[in-house]
Amino acid sequence: MSRLPELAERIDRLVLRHEELARTNALLNEQLSSLTAERDSLKSRLAAARARIDALLDRLPTERAVPGAGE
User: Fold this and answer.
1) What's the pLDDT score for residue 68?
2) Is the pTM for the entire model greater than 0.70?
3) DSSP 1
4) Residue numbers in the chain where pLDDT is lower than 70
5) In this predicted structure, what is the pLDDT of residue 66?
6) Rounded Cα–Cα distance for residues 8 and 3 (Å)
7) Both ends of the chain: CA-CA distance in Å?
8) What is d(CA 14, CA 6) in angstroms, rounded to the nearest whole number?
9) What is the pLDDT of residue 69?
10) DSSP state letters, 4-66
11) Residue 49's Cα: distance from chain center in Å?
């Protein structure tokens, strides 16, 4: 029966380790959510910037043959 205290101690350590891992997992999930939101925001900002650049490019005059330019 001397193994019973050893087994109880191992179980206690496993429970503590499980609780530590659960806390770590919760923190990592929070970080993941935060980074996902940040990524989505950056993607949205990038799309808006691209749309503005495309609109500016559309406003640029098209190239025309300038008389005497090819001479």
Assistant:
1) 64
2) no
3) -
4) 1, 65-71
5) 58
6) 9
7) 105
8) 12
9) 58
10) HHHHHHHHHHHHHHHHHHHHHHHHHHHHHHHHHHHHHHHHHHHHHHHHHHHHHHHHSPPP-PP
11) 19
Total number of residues shown for the chain: 71
Beta-carbon count within 10 A of 66 CB: 7
Chain mean position to CA 63? 41
Residue with tokens 């940040």: 38
The residue behind tokens 């499980």 is: 18
In this prediction, residue 32 carries a pLDDT of 98
Tokens of 10: 């191992």
Two structure tokens written together for 6: 């050893």
Structure tokens at 27: 């923190």
**Which tokens is 16 given?**
């503590």
Q: Strand, helix or coil at 69?
A: coil
